[in-house]
Every structure is written in C-alpha cells, then in structure tokens.
Amino acid sequence: MAIVRLWWNYVRVGVLGEVQYRVNFLVQLLQSAIALATGLIVLALIFSYTQTLGGWTGPELLALMGVHTLVGGLIHMSIQPNMERLMQDVQNGTLDYALIKPADSQALVSVREFRLWQGVDVAIGAIVIGVAVFQLREALGWEQALGFGLALLCGAGMIYAFWLILTTGAFWWVRMENLLELWQGLYSAGRAPVGIYPDWLRYGLTFLVPVAFAVTVPAEAVTGRLTLETLAGAVALAAALLIGARWFWFFGLKHYSGASA
Amino acid sequence: MTVIQVEQLSKSYFVPEREAGLGAALKSLVRRKNREVKAVDAISFEIGPGEVVGFLGPNGAGKTTTLKMLSGLLYPTGGAARVLGHTPEKRERGFLTQVTLVMGNRSQLQWDIPALDSYDLQRAIYGLDPAGYRRTRDELIELMQVGDLVRKPVRNLSLGERMKVEFIGALLHNPKVIFLDEPTLGLDVTMQRRLREFVAGYNARTGATVLLTSHYMADVEALCKRVIVIHHGTLLYDGDLAGLSARFASYKTISASFDQTPPALDGYGEVVATDGLRVTLRVPKAETSRATARLLTDLAVVDLTVEDPPIDDVIEKVFSSPVVK
What we know:
The structure holds two protein chains of two kinds.
Chain A: H1 2-18, H2 22-46, E1 52-53, E2 56-57, H3 58-92, H4 95-99, H5 105-111, H6 119-136, H7 142-168, H8 170-173, H9 177-188, H10 199-208, H11 211-222, H12 228-253
Antiparallel strand pairs in A: 1-2
Helix pairs in contact in A: 2-3, 3-6, 3-7, 3-11, 7-11, 7-12
Chain B: E1 4-17, H1 22-30, E2 33-47, E3 52-56, H2 63-70, E4 78-83, H3 93-96, E5 99-103, H4 115-126, H5 130-144, H6 159-171, E6 177-181, H7 189-206, E7 209-213, H8 217-223, E8 226-231, E9 234-240, H9 241-248, E10 251-258, E11 270-275, E12 278-284, H10 288-298, E13 301-307, H11 311-319
Parallel strand pairs in B: 3-7, 3-8, 5-6, 6-7
Antiparallel strand pairs in B: 1-2, 1-4, 8-9, 10-12, 10-13, 11-12
C-alpha cells in the first residue's frame, strides 16, 4: 500500500507540473493523431492487397495496433520518464536525494515522474481496441477481458523490468541513452504480430526484448487467440524478470559512486 | 554517548585512465586501464549529540565521499560507520527518517511547482502526521523568513531563495543528524550569513548534530567549535578550531604601533604590512617571545598584539602540503 500511496503522491506532483505546460497537451494530441493516421493508412494499404497478414485479419491487426499504442502510451507516461530521470540522476549525482528518502529505493526511482499528456496515447489505444473488437463482431467474454488485463499487466511488468535492468547499467557505464534509443526501434517492430518475423527476430523480440509479450500477447487475448500456456508463460517470465531486475538494482546500488561535488 | 562513530572508514574507486590523444582514446576502447583511487583512507572519529563539526579539506580530499558514506548513499570499501546506532549503508527506514542532507549545488525540490507542493510530497514520503508537519513547516518558514516564496514555482526563485526553501524541505521531518555539503556555495555574503544564523539557531533549539563541509572559512568559524581536517583521504587533524593554528601555523603575527616612524624592522621579523605608524610582522613561532621582548626593549612601542595567523592562511598551508603516502 505504501508504494501505491507514494505513486499517487508523485502522480499528483506530476500532474501539477504538467498542467503548467498546456501547449504540450496540444502537441501530444497532434503527434498521436499523426501516428494514428499513419498506422491506419498503412493497415488500409496492406489489406487492399491481401485478406490476412501472418494469419491476422484486418480487425485483428487493428486490435494489435491499439494495444501497441496503449502500451506505448503507458511506457511514455511512466516507465520511460522515470528511467530517463534515473539515468540523469546517476550522471548528475542527484540520485542522492532519492536514496536518502525513507522509502524503497527501487520503488521510489520508478514512480517519481508522471507525464499526464502521454495519456492521450493510452486513450487513443483503448478506443482503437474498442473499434477493433466491434469490427471483429465477437463479444469480448469476461475470460478474454481477464486474459487481456493479465497479459497487459505482465507485458508492462516485463518492459519495466527490462528498462530497469538497462538503466541500472548506468551505475557502471553512466551514459546509457544509446541503448534506450535502440529500444525505440525495437518497440516499433511490435506494430506487427511477432509471428510474421523470422525465427531469430521472433525469439529476440520475445525473450531478449519483451515486445512480443507486451503487445502481441495482449492482442491475442482480445482476438481470442491466447492460449492458457502462453498466458502462464507470460506470468512466469514477468515474475522472473521483475525478481531479476530487483536483484540487479540492489547489486548496482552498491556500485553507485555519486557524481563528484 | 556518540551519534556518529567512524572506524577505519575507507572508500576506493576504480577510475579509467589513458594518455591524451586519438590513438590512446581508440586503444582504450579495446583495452581500458583502470586505476584504484583511495578517496577515503582509513579515517576514524566520533561525534557527540548536538555537536556542530566542520569537515575541512581541499577539493578531492574525500569530504563529500565521507559525508555520503555516513548518510548511507555510498557503500564503504573498508572499515565501518555507525550513525544513531545504525549502519548507514543498510539504509533502514529508522535511520533515514532521522538524517538529512543538504547539498549547496543540487536541488531536491520539484522545479516546476511551488515548494509548498514539494513539501507535501516530503510529508507523504516521511509519513509525517499532518498537524505536526504543518506546525514544523510554518515554524521553519517563519524562522527562514521566506514568506510567500514557498508559493512560487521553484524555477522562479533566485539561488539564495532556493537554498532557503531547500533547507526547509530538508528539515521538515525534524532530523537528528544534518549533513551539510557546502550549503552556502555561490551565495552572496548576506545570504551566507542568514543561513549560518539559521543553522546555529536550529542547532541550539533542537540539539541536532551537524556535520558541515564548506570552503568558506566564515561558515566554519561562525558555526563550528570543532573541525576535522581531511586531506588526500586521510585525517590530518581533529580538534578545536583554535588548536588548528597551534598545530599547523609555523609563525605568529606581531602588530606594533609606534608614536613616531620606526626604523627598519627587518631584524625583528618579516614585515608584511605597514599602515602609517602601525607595522605588522610575521615571526617564526619559536621566535615570538624573543622578538616581542626585543621590540619592547629597543623601541618606543605604544601598542603591541601577538596573534595566530588568519585561519584561512593556516588552512591554505595545510592544504598545500604534499601527499604523504
């Protein structure tokens, strides 16, 4: 409960800070609209030549695009800004102020930033998923909804753990921005179902960089393709990554040298 | 009873090292050479409750590293420290709720919002009860005389104003140990004096233990009876400020006033200043009594004072000493 309270307090502060910059909201709205329009045009183009892509129909791919947008919004709203701040704090020595607080250090560095306006992508993603489900003409049963929620939670957990592991590397290598740039490129690969990629890339996007679990698996839940085995695998991998990330965080903390005064 | 207990505390870093030039830079990409640097080398001291101790040393002496080890931010590579009965690097909640750190060149307040909102965040993190928190906050705002500054976004405050609101944020949880790392860095003289007065008043009122690092000797002279001098990671001196001169100053200053222009005084000591009929001489410490007696015997002296050299000079001498390792 303490972490939820802490998170809520930082969300409050984040919102207070964000509302100071109203133009950012308009810019974000424009950016999201352009990204949505581009995505829809590409989908329309693809399905003007074919009925399916890697076994996925148009509405199913629309659902995937919705999940991709929604998860991207969550990442940009909370995970990425917190990890970027962590990197800056390690570089500048301002992590001292987080570490001296009487709170779980990993939890604290993971909730300090909240970008309200990135929520536009979360909303757009949810709307796109809703439209896709409507186009599929299949009512979303409670099992599917539960599977979707759980898969989304596991995917978000995996991506958070993946980012935290990468960012913890800053304790040794200080500048990790380039690796995080690499992430952006890999995440865009999640716009298509990972099944269409060659084996080496599919495995990479599943186990090395958990884009498949974050995007494809929740989309499978919405489109009725998710098997219990895949969901169990997602839960197990998420738990393993979260435990690993926590261990690595405390290991890294022992190597924190602070920036010199 | 001791509040801070430090025994043989050490901290080493491995820092990459290479020659200058493109060739050496490319070579270091493949094969990196690291050198071990002992930032703090087996220092020991104890600090009692309510003490205000100045931690002195030149840049790179190991002051901040020690402060960070004592506040639980850095893991020592050797020795041990106990603060309020806790091992700092374990970062137990019971320890962290009783200490605070203020760094002169870094801010912990949220940039875009008023300090009051950041204070509320501190309250949530420290789990302070709302009534007690409001009382402490308002008291500190009054003591620091910041008035409505706490309602302005922090980014709109001057450096001095920001330091004042930083101090309030750092003290909201009534810490028993305060680590101050160059808190007056870059501030104008008036603001420095105000912060010094605040720290002295806070220490007298709450009995909090203060460990202060500062390059401004005025801070140290105004606040600290005791100083610890660290240089090249090792402890050079631990005692009262006055004793520092006795230990390290190799000379004393004799100022003498005459009723008429005196003859050349080079035979009595090194003349460092002449101001009308007043002459200041620098005399080796062992020669002070003899030089004073000779001056009084030989010349018509109206007034004479013998003083230790200014503390800044003493510190400069200590800091310029070569590495002894």
